[in-house]
Amino acid sequence: MLDERGTRCPMPVVALARMVNARPEDRLLLLADDPAAETDVPAWCRLRQRTLAWVGDSPDGRGRAYLVVPLEASPAEA
Amino acid sequence: MGHYGRVVAHSSSTSPLARDTPSGARSRPPAGYLDAASTEPLHPAAREALLVALDQGWADPSRRYHQARRARLLLDAARETVAAVLGARPDEVSFTTSGTQAVGLGVAGLVRGRERVGRRVLSSAVEHSSVLHAAQAAVGAESRTLPVDPLGRVDLDATAAALREPGVALLALQTANHEVGTRQPVDAAAALAQQHAVPLLVDAAQSVGREPLPVGWSVLTASGHKWGGPAGVGVLAVRTGVRWRSPSPEGALEHGRVPGYVDVPGVVAAAAALEAVERERSTESGRLWALVDRLRTRVPQLVADTVVLGDGVDRLPHLVTFSFLYVDGEVLLADLDRAGFAVSSGSSCVADSLQPSHVLAAMGALTHGNLRISLPVGVAEADVDRLLAVLPGVVSDVRAVLGTTDL
Questions:
Q1: What positions of A carry a catalytic annotation?
Q2: Over pLDDT 70: what percentage of chain B?
Q3: Angle at CA B313, nearest 5°, toward B308 and B315?
């Protein structure tokens, strides 16, 4: 899990990219409250061939949660 | 002054002042100014006409004395010039104090005129904020936005479906998008609107003076400073027979459509600029189109992880937008400013709010590292080449600072 709440664009996506680079096989849950992330996380997933498996509110209600998985993984496994 | 005699003698045709501007070599816009979509630098023809009209057209054009009649002649001539370019009758054209005011009056007047039919204002999700705000603000109106494809073009199937529902007051659609340049299918939308007897408001702010205009509108709006006129002049054109009712207490000026006093010198200057850019358009539009094409081709070759936004072919001639992955738009703009370039961005860090551009969001485009380049009329080719030389280094510096070079 990656908590980028409080950072602004492009930092949530930069942090996501760093983590995916370091652990390319993992499923990652990104928390972010930057409104730009709503558009930029899905756009980044398309550019970098990842699947955005799920988007919803953060468990504690602050910001949004993005589940990013490798391209082949199905959302059900996550 | 010589202008006065010519004004009287030739007022029946196009703006007489525009003819007095020097032809041939035109002056260039300021070097590095690549933000024409925000505002076009004042056209030399507008400056000249403005100075003359400040002397000759200052009086109240609704009065009967000779100074007033002179102002009226100038105003009538300007109206004929603008109407001819819009493909409208002069009595269909009113001048407002801004493009935003024209949009506000256009939307609110159609909503009032359609009170008994419906109150829903349909618009594409990528309209200028003035249209979206007007749709939300018009008394009793209810706004609904229509989705766009990844190029920013409105979904015609969704448009048709929304028009089939009862209760639609109007459909609002831009000629082309102000952030990514994609042209909208205005002719097709006009045909759909006509099938359902729904009036169509066309926001032509980015197209007037730059490309041919559609004809199927009920109301058309534009903004003088976008084509090289002074700030403070908007255009509201209402087709004869369209049910449009003034949302403000009606005055005698501007066919009762616009509250307040008309700025005759400003209008005359805007008309002179429009006449001049229209005269230059046949050659200039193709030149700008090719320069934008060069940018669209070269920038992604020179800068890794660049997304070119909008339609590459069916687009405005003078505008292109990129998003650079892992780039802070605010830093990018500041660095380009230091390098001598004036450009703009739809990234949230550049906006007054924390929200990214609603246009980019509706397209699902990358919103960070966003850069809009829009070429003013007469831009030097060397400016475009210098930007191509400078941009790769600027972007890689921004990425190096963020430590994202290898991501």
A1: 9
A2: 93
A3: 80
Residue B386 has a pLDDT of: 98
Partner-chain residue, chosen from B361, B364, B404, that has the shortest CB–CB distance to A14: B404
Q: Give residue A73's pLDDT band: very low, low, confident or very high (50, 70, 90).
A: low
Q: Where are the domains of chain B?
A: 72-275, 281-402
What's the rounded mean pLDDT across residues B98-114? 97
CATH of B72-275, one of 3.30.1330.30, 3.40.640.10, 3.50.50.60, 3.30.360.10: 3.40.640.10
What is the distance between the alpha carbons of residues B343 and B33, in angstroms, rounded to a whole number? 7
Instruction: Tell me what pLDDT residue A75 has.
Output: 54
Greatest alpha-carbon pair distance for chain A in Å reads 31
Q: Is the pLDDT of residue B84 over 50?
A: yes
The predicted structure's pLDDT at residue B13: 42
B-facing residues of A in 2-61 (CB < 8 A) are 8-10, 13-14, 17-18, 21, 34-36, 38-40, 42-44, 47
For domain A2-77, give its CATH number from 3.30.830.10, 3.30.110.40, 1.10.10.10, 3.40.50.720: 3.30.110.40
Q: How far is CA B182 from CA B149, B242, B318, B330, B363, in A?
A: 11, 28, 11, 24, 11
pTM for the full predicted model: 0.92
The residues of B whose Cβ lies within 8 A of any Cβ of A are 305, 307, 323, 325-329, 347-349, 354-356, 360-361, 364-369, 402, 404, 406-407
Q: What percent of chain A has pLDDT over 90?
A: 87
List, as one string, the DSSP characters of A9-65.
Answer: TTHHHHHHHHHHHH-TTS-EEEEE--TTHHHHHHHHHHHTTEEEEEEEE-TTSSSEE
